[in-house]
User: Which sequence fits this backbone?
C-alpha cells in the first residue's frame, strides 16, 4: 500500500474509533447492533465495499438498515455485483476489520487482505458504491460514516440513492452492473409493467371473478415499505390497496407490534387492524420490505389471525409455475427446485413433495437459500418468515424465449403460447436480485386473480402443523453450534440429546434451536400435532437452553 493511501486511511480511521469491549460479528445478513455503537463498523464496511468494487470492477451496494429489529438498532447489508448478498468468502475479512482495535491494526489487516486478493488500491482503479438507507433516525449519520469509509480508498466514489427498501438497492446494483438504466422510477416501471403484462395474460372470465374483489390491506411496519407501496400502487391500477402503518407522523413506531416479523412470530394482528377487517385479505411487510406474509382476521375470534406465511407463498408460486410449465412444454427437461429452511412448516414440505417437486434445505439466511436456488433452471426459495424469490437461470430464459418464438409462429394465442409468456412475465415481475416484498406481493395478487382464489381458499392448500417460536436470552449465543441445516445442536454437548427426549414425547413433535444472527438471543422452534403440544414443547426446549447456557 502506498504511503499516501496509508496516511489517508490512518487519518480517517482515527475519526471512527471502535466501541470499547464489544465484539461485532457479521451475522445472518450483515452487521446489526444498537445504532449508537455502529459508526466505526459502517465506516469500515465503507472501505470493504470500495475494495470489493475495485476487485470486481462493478458497482457494490451498501444498505443501512436493521430490517425487522427495533428502531434503536441499525445495521448494514451489502449487495454484491449480481445484486445478491456479499460473497461469503469476504465475511471473515468483514469480521476482522470491524473488530480492529486501532487505525494501525486496521491498515495492517487491509494490507494483508489486498495482497492476498490481489486488489490494486491507490492507483488509477475506480470504484462505485450505491448507498441506501431505511427510515431509521440514525440512518443519516451512519450514511455519512459509510461515505467517509468509501472516500478513504483512492478512486472510490459513493452515490447516495436515498431512502429505499433493501430490495430496491439490490435491484439497482444488479441493473447497473447489467448496463441498464437505474433510478427509483425505473424500478417502479419495471415491476408495474411486468404486473400489467401478467394481468393481460389472465383469461378475462377469471378477472371478473367476484371471489377476491375486496381490497387488500397492507401493514407497512411503519417503515420504508409502506411509503414505497404508496408510490407503486399509483402505477398498478388493477389493484385496490390500502396501506396502514406507513410510517407517517402519528401512525406508530417502526416494527413495534407491527410488521411481518411480529405477525409471523406472534401470530397476532398488527396494530391498526381491528375486528372490522375480519375476513379481508391482509399482508404485512417488514422494516426494510424484504419480507412478506399474508394473514386474515378470523371473524368473531377476538382478532385471532390465520397466518399465510412464506411457506404458503412458496407453495402458491410453485404450484402456478409447475402448472404453466406443464402447459407450455411437454418434452424439454426443466430443473425446477424448491429451497426451504428448518423453519418450514412440516406440512408445507409434505405438500411440495406431493406436488412432485425437489425440496432441499439450507441454513437460515437468504445468502444460503439464494445460492442453492441458483443451481436450478427455476429455483424457488422462501423462508417461513416471508423472505424469498424465484430465480430463473439465463439458460432457461434463452430457451423460453426461443420456445415463445416457436409457438408464436406455430400456434400464436394458444394456451401453450400464453403459458410460456406467463413464465417470462413472472421472471420480470419477481425481483431476481433478492427477496422483495413489493414484487412478491404483485405476483401473489396476480396468481390469486388468475386462480379466482380468496385468501381463505389459498390458505386451504394444506393445513399448517401448529408451531411456536420463542427467544431465549443467554450469556453467549455463540456457544451454540449446529449442523445439518441447523437441525442438530453440536455444541454444547448433551443439549441435542435433551431436545430429542422432549420432542419424542409429542405426536409429530419437532424442535430445533439456533443462535440468531440478527439479535442477541437463541431462537427455539417447535411444532407438534396440537397448539398446546407445540407450546409445551417450545417451553421445555427453552428451559433446556437456559439450563445449558443461561
Ligand atoms: C435476516 C435474513 C433472513 C433471515 C433472518 C433471520 O432477515 O436476511 O434471511 O431469515 O435474518 O434472522 P435471525 O438470524 O435473527 O433468526 P432480516 O429481514 O432481518 O434482514
Assistant:
Amino acid at each position: 500500500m502506498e504511503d499516501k493511501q496509508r496516511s489517508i486511511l490512518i487519518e480517517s480511521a482515527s475519526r471512527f474509533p471502535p466501541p470499547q469491549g464489544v465484539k461485532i460479528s457479521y451475522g445472518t445478513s450483515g452487521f446489526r447492533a444498537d445504532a449508537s455503537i455502529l459508526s466505526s463498523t459502517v465506516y469500515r464496511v465503507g472501505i470493504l465495499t470500495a475494495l470489493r468494487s475495485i476487485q470486481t470492477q462493478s458497482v457494490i451496494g451498501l444498505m443501512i438498515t436493521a430490517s425487522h429489529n427495533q428502531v434503536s438498532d441499525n445495521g448494514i447489508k451489502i449487495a454484491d455485483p449480481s445484486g445478491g448478498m456479499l460473497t461469503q468468502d469476504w465475511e471473515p475479512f468483514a469480521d476482522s476489520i470491524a473488530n480492529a482495535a486501532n487505525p494501525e491494526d486496521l491498515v495492517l489487516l487491509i494490507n494483508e487482505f489486498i495482497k492476498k486478493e490481489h486488489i490494486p488500491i491507490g492507483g488509477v482503479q475506480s470504484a462505485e458504491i450505491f448507498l441506501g438507507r431505511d427510515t431509521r433516525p440514525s440512518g443519516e449519520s451512519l450514511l455519512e460514516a459509510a461515505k467517509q469509509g468509501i472516500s478513504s480508498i483512492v478512486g472510490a466514489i459513493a452515490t447516495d440513492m436515498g431512502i429505499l427498501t433493501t430490495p430496491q438497492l439490490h435491484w439497482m446494483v444488479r441493473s447497473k452492473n447489467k448496463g441498464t438504466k437505474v433510478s427509483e422510477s425505473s424500478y417502479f416501471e419495471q415491476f408495474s409493467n411486468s404486473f400489467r403484462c401478467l394481468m393481460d395474460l389472465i383469461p378475462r372470465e377469471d378477472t371478473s371473478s367476484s371471489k377476491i374483489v375486496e381490497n387488500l390491506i397492507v401493514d407497512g411496519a411503519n417503515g420504508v415499505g409502506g411509503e414505497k407501496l404508496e408510490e407503486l400502487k399509483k402505477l398498478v391500477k388493477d389493484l385496490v390497496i390500502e396501506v396502514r402503518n406507513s410510517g407517517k407522523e402519528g401512525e406508530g413506531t417502526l416494527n413495534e407490534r407491527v410488521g411481518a416479523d411480529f405477525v409471523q412470530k406472534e401470530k397476532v394482528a398488527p396494530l391498526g387492524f381491528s375486528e372490522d377487517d375480519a375476513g379481508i385479505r391482509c399482508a404485512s411487510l417488514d422494516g426494510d420490505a424484504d419480507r412478506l406474509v399474508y394473514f386474515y382476521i378470523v371473524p368473531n375470534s377476538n382478532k385471532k389471525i390465520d397466518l399465510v406465511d412464506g411457506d404458503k407463498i412458496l407453495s402458491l408460486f410453485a404450484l402456478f409455475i409447475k402448472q404453466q410449465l406443464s402447459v407450455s412444454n411437454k418434452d424439454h427437461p426443466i430443473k425446477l427446485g424448491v429451497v426451504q429452511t428448518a423453519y418450514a412448516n412440516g406440512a408445507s414440505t409434505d405438500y411440495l413433495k406431493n406436488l412432485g417437486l425437489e425440496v432441499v434445505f439450507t441454513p437460515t439466511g437468504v445468502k444460503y437459500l439464494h445460492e442453492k436456488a441458483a443451481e436450478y433452471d427455476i429455483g424457488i426459495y422462501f423462508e417461513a418468515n416471508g423472505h424469498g424469490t424465484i430465480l430463473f437461470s439465463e439458460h432457461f430464459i434463452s430457451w423460453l424465449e426461443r420456445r415463445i418464438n416457436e409457438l408464436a409462429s406455430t400456434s400464436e394465442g394458444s394456451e401453450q403460447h400464453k403459458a410460456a409468456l406467463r413464465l417470462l412475465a413472472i421472471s420480470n415481475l419477481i425481483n431476481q436480485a433478492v427477496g422483495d416484498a413489493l414484487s412478491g406481493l404483485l405476483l401473489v395478487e396476480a396468481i390469486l386473480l388468475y386462480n379466482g382464489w380468496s385468501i381463505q381458499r389459498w390458505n386451504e392448500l394444506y393445513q399448517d402443523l401448529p408451531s411456536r417460536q420463542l427467544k431465549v436470552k443467554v450469556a453467549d449465543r455463540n456457544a451454540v453450534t449446529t449442523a445439518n441445516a441447523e437441525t442438530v445442536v453440536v455444541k454444547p454437548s448433551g443439549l441435542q440429546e435433551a431436545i430429542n427426549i422432549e420432542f419424542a414425547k409429542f405426536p409429530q413433535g419437532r424442535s430445533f434451536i439456533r443462535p440468531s444472527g440478527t439479535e442477541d438471543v437463541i431462537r427455539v422452534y417447535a411444532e407438534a400435532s396440537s397448539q398446546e403440544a407445540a407450546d409445551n414443547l417450545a417451553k421445555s426446549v427453552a428451559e433446556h437452553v437456559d439450563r445449558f447456557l443461561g
Observations:
- The chain has a mean pLDDT of 95.
